[in-house]
Design brief:
The radius of gyration is 16 Å and the shape is extended. The chain is of the alpha+beta class. A two-stranded antiparallel ribbon has the order 1-2. The protein contains 3 helices and 2 strands. Helices cover 36% and strands 14% of the residues.
């Protein structure tokens, strides 16, 4: 999850099961996601001694630029035990 400048605001953890909610409520909800706050992520990285950089203030990006930043920075991670 990025802000208008392309800075990380949170990490998407999961999304709403729209079909399940539609069956229960009769309505189709869209764009409902659940994210881990960037401060929680920073604490996790620091605890595990992972280096990261905090972005400086920048100008707002166009929708195209923001999509390019998001695509370049996005990966899917699955944790299994």
């Amino acid at each position: 999850m990025l802000d208008e400048q392309g800075r990380l605001m949170g990490v998407i953890q999961s999304k709403l099961d729209a079909i399940r909610v539609a069956r229960a409520t009769g309505d189709i909800l869209q764009n409902v996601n659940f994210a881990i706050r960037s401060t929680t992520l920073a604490n996790f990285l620091e605890t595990n001694q992972v280096a990261y950089e905090v972005a400086s203030d920048t100008k707002p990006l166009s929708a195209t630029e923001l999509a390019q930043v998001a695509e370049a920075a996005s990966v899917q991670i699955e944790c299994r035990r």
